[in-house]
Amino acid sequence: MLRRGVSNESEQGQNVTVARIEQSLQDLEQMTEDDHAVTVRWLLHDAKKAAKNTDSAFVDKVSPFDSMKPIHLSAGGTVPDGSATVKLESHVNKKSKAGKIRSQLITKIIKSDTARVPKYSFHTTVRRNILTMDDERLRFIPYMGDAEGSKKKNARLIHELEQAYSPKPSTSSRESEWSSQVRACLEASLEKLGLEIGQDKLIQYLLDQGRNRSRDSEIEKRTIHESFELPLEPRERELAKMVSQAFRKVYDRPLEDILLSEEHLKELAERRNSNQDKPGRTPTKSQLSQTDINKMESSAEPCPDRLGTYTTLICLICGAASCQTHGDSARDENAPGYQYVHQPLVTTYQDILRKQDARIAAKAGQPDFSTQVDTPCSSECYLVSRYDDSAYKLPAEDISTIESMVISLRDKKRRACTIAFFMDLPCWKVHSEIKHMEPRSVELPSKNRARQPDWYNNQKKTLKWDWQDMTTAHLHQERCQANPCAHEGPCQKGCPCFDSQLLCESICGCSDDCPRKFTGCPCHSNGIVCVSDSCICIQMNRECGPQCSSCGAIPRINPDNRYQDDLFTTGCQNIHLQRGVSPKLILGESQLEGVGFGLYVGEPVRKGEYLGEYAGEVISFLEADRRGIIYDRKYLSFLFDLNSEWAIDAARLGNKTRFINHADNDKDGLNCEAKIALVNGEHRIKFLALRDIKVGEELLFNYGKKFADKHGLNKKLPKAKEDGKRGVVVGEEALEALDGLNPANRATRGKMTAIRGGHGGGRSRKARKTAPVQGIPVEVEQGADEDSDFAVPQDEDDDDDEDITDRRRKRKITRPLRYTR
Ligand SMILES: C[S@@+](CC[C@H](N)C(=O)[O-])C[C@H]1O[C@@H](n2cnc3c(N)ncnc32)[C@H](O)[C@@H]1O
């Protein structure tokens, strides 16, 4: 904020010298400093006044510690029986040794029969995965204890964290505030001197000179450089050189620090890319003739720019506004090799319409949950009205508004009626405009059609016998995240699905008859139930979905039918995650000594049954690596690789499955496995029982050798009943133990018994309501069982683990928990 204005009086640019520019810059610098001083004085004045007011109104003048007597610490001496000593070391002044105070406290040891509460790292319970952006700022350094020899370890940790979180020093806010102030000052100074160059020319000069040779922001530099159409005139170059020299003298640093700072370059490049600020390219309105302006305003083109906003606001996978589950994964701009590229997700209107069509087509097979019927909206409704299209022309801006609205309205049948209502236009006219917009007439020439992959026939819905050698589309941990494709032309080279050798999904923008599109399973028509490898969806580690028109998945994924157990006893069984009903799971202290909590089953589970979803934050690998530094140091990690780009972290957000501990093999109590499945274009992790599991058994799955080795996961279930010591608890007795030890659980006891009695798909049928989240109805159970069932199993019993047979699994998809390098 420049309080004293800069003189408008233009000085003669021709007589300018380095000394004069220097003087002008100094004047402005002085002015800026004065201005800053005035601002700070005002702020302090205000702050003092505010503090005074608060003081009298709310602050107690007497310190609560005033009445406390000082405690005299005993300086050691004999320690009475039943006591222990604690050594304290306080540092008053870090640098001086004199500031170090050592004392020793004598404490009483209190013994109690109460079970020790296991260590627990706090988490918030979530019902579905939440996409979390990268956070490359190191916000705090965790306290890792003062144990012997930990100083070196802590120093190493701090170094590691600083390396991971700040690969390059980011501009501090003070620095960036200063830079922008000086930039403003510079602009004013050039204006005052009447020089015929502005900041743009100075930037061009610095880029021409190859100043700022750092490899950072290369793309931005190129974008900006290419936007200058004409080379600098010799006079301009001379002036820019003088400004650069004067700047260095006044500020004692190079001009490029201010004009080519990473932050500023990024800002400029974004502006250039969005076409708002192309020097010498985009004429201003005043430079255009009225005919040009009319042409621009009546063109159908301005729409795509605005559509960009729609596509980023509305998720292309689920249609939710600002979706937190899918969406463009976070970019780590500080990552080595990161390059700024301005790349709108979807570029043209036709792409978006195609995507819309694909989504609507994918939904066509689903039951219509809406209550709408095909009744005409008015006498002018397109459903009833016969109209002469050519007789009535809409203004360009109305057409443009219709285009924009079409994108956000997914119900195709109703969109003309809805738009007509909002715009107060005849429905038939809106409908006719929409029809013109749709790229239906675009028939692709046959030679240009996409080809089916060699290993998959989407019409017969079959895989070639050696398909597993030809693709990794089913190996989710190795493949990338599914991103719906949206491009002109057929799905061939250049299409992201094609290039990643993946199939197109129903959410992709390509046409329904794209030969690369996954078309689901034909199980019912082939007389098969989706339960084994004969179902193509199971073979490809996918859950059945709307694209499987005949197998019976569609009514089974309808949330309204979730608790209709009869429906699930037959028909498609490959919809676990979409149904989302798990058996009763009880949280208690793990039977693996000292590992904290563990998860137990509260009702019998059969082999192959679904146990729950491993939910948490979906984060990029870069973020996982950063978080992993602290997790690995604490030997407590909840990271789980989801695919080749993303991981799930259940440390901060998660559900009960985050408490499932590790076992190497059947002998150690391994009883469940984790599988990654593709569910409607989304990767998700589910737990399945590897064998029949008895009530009260602790769930254990194999985290993978790398994780187990790195974290030293060596704790095993105690052997069955040995000389009165603790043993594995299973069966009814275990339930008593789990139940009885925590009075809070008694209330649920009757319910659990009832569920056990009615086993055969029997699950806790809790009252539930639906809560809309981002426009999508999400099931929320009232009195959710999450975390209320704490218990500490302590009783002994025989370890009567059953023999586990049939361990040979054709598809190896048990996914190790992530470890960080
Ligand atoms: C996903 S958490 C499991 C829940 C954890 N027990 C708790 O209370 O939060 C994984 C962590 O549990 C511990 N853990 C799991 N299985 C273990 C085993 N067999 N031996 C030792 N520690 C284990 C390790 O600290 C590991 O990093």
Automatic annotation (TrEMBL):
<dbReference type="Pfam" id="PF00856">
    <property type="entry name" value="SET"/>
</dbReference>
<dbReference type="InterPro" id="IPR040595">
    <property type="entry name" value="EZH2_N"/>
</dbReference>
<feature type="compositionally biased region" description="Acidic residues">
    <location>
        <begin position="782"/>
        <end position="804"/>
    </location>
</feature>
<feature type="compositionally biased region" description="Polar residues">
    <location>
        <begin position="283"/>
        <end position="297"/>
    </location>
</feature>
<feature type="compositionally biased region" description="Basic residues">
    <location>
        <begin position="807"/>
        <end position="821"/>
    </location>
</feature>
<dbReference type="GO" id="GO:0032259">
    <property type="term" value="P:methylation"/>
</dbReference>
<protein>
    <recommendedName>
        <fullName>SET domain-containing protein</fullName>
    </recommendedName>
</protein>
<feature type="domain" description="CXC">
    <location>
        <begin position="458"/>
        <end position="568"/>
    </location>
</feature>
<dbReference type="InterPro" id="IPR026489">
    <property type="entry name" value="CXC_dom"/>
</dbReference>
<feature type="region of interest" description="Disordered">
    <location>
        <begin position="269"/>
        <end position="302"/>
    </location>
</feature>
<keyword id="KW-0804">Transcription</keyword>
<keyword id="KW-0808">Transferase</keyword>
<keyword id="KW-0949">S-adenosyl-L-methionine</keyword>
<dbReference type="InterPro" id="IPR001214">
    <property type="entry name" value="SET_dom"/>
</dbReference>
<dbReference type="Pfam" id="PF18601">
    <property type="entry name" value="EZH2_N"/>
</dbReference>
<dbReference type="GO" id="GO:0031507">
    <property type="term" value="P:heterochromatin formation"/>
</dbReference>
<dbReference type="GO" id="GO:0003682">
    <property type="term" value="F:chromatin binding"/>
</dbReference>
<dbReference type="InterPro" id="IPR048360">
    <property type="entry name" value="Ezh2_CXC_fung"/>
</dbReference>
<dbReference type="InterPro" id="IPR045318">
    <property type="entry name" value="EZH1/2-like"/>
</dbReference>
<dbReference type="GO" id="GO:0046976">
    <property type="term" value="F:histone H3K27 methyltransferase activity"/>
</dbReference>
<feature type="domain" description="SET">
    <location>
        <begin position="583"/>
        <end position="704"/>
    </location>
</feature>
<dbReference type="InterPro" id="IPR046341">
    <property type="entry name" value="SET_dom_sf"/>
</dbReference>
<dbReference type="Pfam" id="PF21509">
    <property type="entry name" value="Ezh2-like__CXC_fung"/>
</dbReference>
<feature type="region of interest" description="Disordered">
    <location>
        <begin position="744"/>
        <end position="821"/>
    </location>
</feature>
<dbReference type="GO" id="GO:0005634">
    <property type="term" value="C:nucleus"/>
</dbReference>
<keyword id="KW-0489">Methyltransferase</keyword>
<feature type="compositionally biased region" description="Basic and acidic residues">
    <location>
        <begin position="269"/>
        <end position="280"/>
    </location>
</feature>
<keyword id="KW-0805">Transcription regulation</keyword>
